[in-house]
Amino acid sequence: MQEIVPDLWDVDEIGPTAHVYLWRWAEGVTIIDTGMPGSTDKILAAVGTLGLQPSDVKRIIATHGDVDHIGSLKALKRATGAPVICHTVEKELLEHPNRRKPAGTPLGILIRPLFSLAMLLPQFHVEPQSPDRTHVDGDKLPEGFTIIHTPGHTPGHISLLHPERRILIAGDAIHNRGGKLGAPPPLFTPDMENAHRSIWKLAKKYGEEIDTIVCGHGNPIVSGGGARLQGLVDHIFEAETRA
Ligand SMILES: [Zn+2]
Fold first, then answer.
1. Is 243 helix (H, G, I), strand (E, B) or coil?
2. Ligand 1: distance of its center to the CA of 36 in Å?
3. Strand-strand pairing, 167-169 and 212-214
4. What gap in Å lies between CA 220 and CA 218, rounded to an integer?
5. What total of structural domains would you count in the chain?
6. Of 21, 27, 204, 237, which has the maximum CB count within 10 A?
7. Residue 227 is part of a domain; what is its CATH number?
8. How many whole angstroms from 86 Cα to the centroid of ligand 1?
9. Does pTM top 0.90 for this prediction?
10. How far apart are CA 200 and CA 236, in angstroms?
11. Cα–Cα distance between 57 and 79 in angstroms, integer?
């Protein structure tokens, strides 16, 4: 396990899928995203290395309803009893993970049957889990996070901002693959226009409050995150103006 900044841990034992983060706070620990199906034991072992028990898990936050983020949600809920939360609009995908579809691009439509078949394989099969509570943009959690609705990749995608600690947990609103910030992958982002607006919102509304950025995919950025976000916005909107 890797401590990115004080109190924020990356459970890298789960391997190179979507990151699972642990946030340690006064009342225990909060799990942000849950990795692929079968990641539960490794995540609980990581909680143990912080000297904490499954009962110390105070909340499980799903940034969105993709297999690599909610794969172990139900098993973790069962093991910890912690309340599960997501955005109000994302409740549908947590309860019906098979409704997730690739984008409506020609390639996306072409691979849809394959994608549906893959979802039946045990390694991709997600057990549905209803959230205990749902949230909307601007809601605040006792951990210190503000929920930011960042739709596009999925309709109810959320990012988490900790203004005091200047940390953004972006989920898949952005990624940092190969050390380069980018928009989410077009093939799995049915509403790219909204995904771009979400990045714009993160940069313009919150950029000055952000130093650290961690994403679902790619390495963490530990300083200057706001400027990096602004750089991505410039890149996206310049490209759109040229188009
Ligand atoms: Zn992902």
1. coil
2. 10
3. parallel
4. 7
5. 1
6. 21
7. 3.60.15.10
8. 15
9. yes
10. 9
11. 10
Crossing angle (nearest 10°) for helices 225-242 and 192-206: 140
Partners of 55 in the beta sheet?
Answer: none
Q: Ligand 1 centroid to 111 CA: how many Å?
A: 18
Angle formed by the axes of helices 73-80 and 40-49, nearest 10°: 50
Distance 132 CA to ligand 1 centre (A): 22
Between the CA of 216 and the centroid of ligand 1 the distance, in Å, is 6
Ligand 1 center from residue 69 Cα (angstroms): 6
How remote is the CA of residue 166 from the centroid of ligand 1, in Å?
23
CA of 73 to the centre of ligand 1 (A): 14
Do residues 157 and 64 make contact, with C-beta atoms less than 8 angstroms apart? yes
pLDDT digits (tens, 9 = 90+) for 147-183: 999 999 999 999 999 999 999 999 999 999 888 999 9
pLDDT for res 238: 83
Among 173, 161, 171, 142, residue whose Cα is nearest residue 211: 161
Its domain, for residue 147, covers: 2-126+133-242
3-state secondary structure of 64: coil
Distance (Å, rounded) from C-alpha 66 to C-alpha 70?
6
Predicted confidence at residue 112, as pLDDT, reads 92
pLDDT for residue 242 is more than 80: no
